[in-house]
Amino acid sequence: MSINNTSLRSYQNVTPELGAKVYIDSSSVIVGDVNIGDHSSVWPLVAARGDVNIIRIGKRTNIQDGTILHVTRKSEAKPDGHPLIIGDDVTVGHKAMLHGCQLGHRILVGMGSIIMDGAIVEDDVIIGAGTLVPPNKVLASGYLYVGNPMKQARPLKDVEIEFLKQSADNYVHLKDEYLAEQ
After folding, report:
1. pLDDT by residue (tens digit) across 86-125?
2. What is the per-residue DSSP string for the chain?
3. How confident is the model over 13-72, as pLDDT tens digits?
4. What is the pLDDT of residues 144-172, one digit of tens each?
5. What distance in Å separates the CA atoms of residue 30 and residue 39, rounded to the nearest whole number?
6. Residue 129: alpha-carbon gap to chain centroid
């Protein structure tokens, strides 16, 4: 696993936890209560800050270059705050921003997309590049969403649904290549 002394940082005595065969690029910063599942990967310049709430990343999920992962603090008005929960076989494109939202399994988040607090993305969804998902929206399974703010564009084709798993598998293979060079 590629981790330098500064990639994983404790916050209030809580240190990120990694599953088996996880790749973390040395330029990324993972802070606090972050749990990353088996065979997942975090690429250059990712910031994942689990300081005021938790971040959970599933298995075989890839978080691509320049992405920001953060959460919302627990409060009297919102006792659970907004944790960030990302499922299995998720591909998060370059420079995405995920803030206090929940993503199911087999999702593609397009480059530069923003998903805000309380949004829920069900399984088998594609979010087009540059899409803004406003707070508390629910994106139903099996659709393509695009735009600012997002709109449900159309049902996914079978080949697109198959691609969601293939995209995750491609990044598992790539991270294994990177790990083999360590």
Report:
1. 999 999 999 999 999 999 999 999 999 999 999 999 999 9
2. ----TTTEE-BTTB--EE-TT-EE-TT-EEEEEEEE-TT-EE-TT-EEEEEEEEEEE-TT-EE-TT-EEE-B---SSSTT-B-EEE-SS-EE-TT-EEES-EE-SSEEE-TT-EE-TT-EE-SSEEE-TT-EE-TT-EE-TTEEEETTTTEEEEEPPHHHHHHHHHHHHHHHHHHHHHHHT-
3. 999 999 999 999 999 999 999 999 999 999 999 999 999 999 999 999 999 999 999 999
4. 999 999 999 999 999 999 999 999 999 99
5. 16
6. 15
Geometric angle at alpha carbon 109, from 139 and 60, rounded to 5°? 110
Q: 65-85 pLDDT, tens per residue?
A: 999 999 999 999 999 999 999
Give me the residue label for tokens 């691609």. 163
pTM confidence score: 0.96
Residue with tokens 């530069």: 112
Neighbours of 143 (CB within 10 A): 17
In this structure, CATH architecture of domain 8-180: 3 Solenoid (2.160)
> What CA–CA distance (Å, rounded) separates 176 from 44?
16
Q: Which two tokens stand for residue 50?
A: 């689990």
Number of residues that make up the chain: 182
